[in-house]
DNA sequence: AAGACTAGAATGAACATTCGTTCTAGTCAA
DNA sequence: TTGACTAGAACGAATGTTCATTCTAGTCTT
């Protein structure tokens, strides 16, 4: 029930394909990346690719699901290891910043790809589970009295909007220093904007 | 000098094409939109389209430049009619909210299209003139003592990040009410996050 | 030897772009 | 005023390429 439309057997070959596709998609875009490109970059033949994946879209879908699941479980861990909304939200931002630095392609794929554009019927990124979790952290803060009363989605945007914007700027090459350098500053702003 | 790589003569026919292309690009994406699609939607023939525009990319480029110029002059007007950083930033957000409601396609094109993906050599949206202007509003506020001292780009992200996120949510169909309904709330958060 | 996997050539559809032609409106000559 | 001439605007069928996908012939693995 929790699961995915496109379950894919994990083998070294599929990992090769997914890794190559992630890089190509985020560097040149989905439509500028041809199957021959992926064949070259992954050293997996056309036949094998179509043995494992239904079609090109299936590769993107599988990628998307893998990455969403990964973020989802990271956020769940944060919920498990931090008690207050304050700590949870801060940890979430710190995690996103780390991920952006260590695997920019993952973050770029999650945030920038207009999924509806090339994955028909794909719900928008911002309503995927991890982003719902972020919203829930803020709402919990409102219930516990840490966060002032207001429209939940507005509060969530206030808390995470600044950080997400910095991530975008970093990925677009506007920011030179690594994101964690800005964590304290942006977090102070974020929390001040909603704290009671 | 201020101008554009792809100057296009403005005629009824080109307006037709640009209008149709804007809608199609933002609804289905650049790569899912074929020239025949644009021909049908604009009632302008293939030959004429290629008479006015170098190629499909030229249409997108022309669209982008038109929209950027339009936002740029709106922001300049805000700078001319509002004195304080507080008023300018608030007016900027109000303007973006209005534009999103009245012409979602314009906003969608400006914010979401991964321009580098289909317009090679296109600098990222977030370093286009209007976004620089937004940053300058915040910096001016720091100089006038309205905004607390901090890294300029972080301050700008804090002020505008929440609003931009709401715009994204609205365009992705997550928000039901029109954006101006949220203006007061998000602005309070935004300003509180950086005010001295 | 059977099944899973790999390979890469072959296929056919879709598409951006070109090109030769037609149309339109303006200008000029008589 | 009429008719000839011109320039550029508009047209859309034809072209050639690209690319996702399929197919056939193998090669491992157990």
UniProtKB/TrEMBL annotation, chains A, B:
Keywords attached to this Swiss-Prot or TrEMBL record, sorted alphabetically, are: DNA-binding
What's a Gene Ontology MF term here? Answer: DNA binding
Quote the InterPro entries the UniProt record gives. DNA-bd_HTH_TetR-type_CS (IPR023772), Homeodomain-like_sf (IPR009057), HTH-type_TetR-like_transc_reg (IPR050109), HTH_TetR (IPR001647), Tet_transcr_reg_TetR-rel_C_sf (IPR036271)
Q: What sections of the protein cross the membrane?
A: none
Q: Where is the HTH tetR-type domain?
A: 11-71
Recorded hits in Gene3D superfamilies, A to Z, give: Tetracycline Repressor, domain 2
User: DNA-binding: is it a keyword of this entry?
Assistant: yes
Going by the entry's taxonomy, the superkingdom of the source organism is recorded as: Bacteria
Q: Which PANTHER family does the entry mention?
A: HTH-TYPE TRANSCRIPTIONAL REGULATOR RUTR, REGULATORY PROTEIN
Q: What is this protein called?
A: TetR family transcriptional regulator
């Amino acid at each position: 029930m929790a699961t995915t439309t496109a379950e894919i057997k994990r083998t070294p070959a599929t990992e090769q394909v997914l890794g190559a596709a992630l890089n190509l998609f985020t560097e040149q875009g989905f439509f500028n990346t041809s199957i021959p490109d992926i064949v070259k970059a992954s050293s997996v033949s056309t036949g094998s690719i179509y043995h494992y994946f239904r079609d090109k879209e299936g590769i993107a879908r599988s990628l998307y699901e893998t990455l969403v699941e990964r973020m989802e479980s990271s956020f769940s861990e944060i919920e498990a290891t931090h008690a207050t909304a304050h700590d949870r939200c801060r940890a979430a931002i710190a995690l996103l910043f780390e991920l952006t630095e260590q695997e920019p392609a993952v973050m770029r794929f999650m945030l920038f790809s207009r999924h509806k554009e090339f994955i028909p019927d794909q719900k928008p990124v911002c309503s995927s589970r991890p982003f719902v979790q972020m919203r829930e952290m803020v709402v919990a803060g409102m219930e516990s009295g840490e966060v002032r009363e207001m429209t939940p989605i507005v509060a969530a945007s206030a808390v995470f909007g600044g950080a997400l914007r910095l991530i975008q700027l970093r990925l677009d090459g506007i920011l030179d220093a690594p994101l964690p350098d800005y964590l304290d500053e942006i977090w102070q702003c974020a929390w001040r904007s909603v704290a009671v």
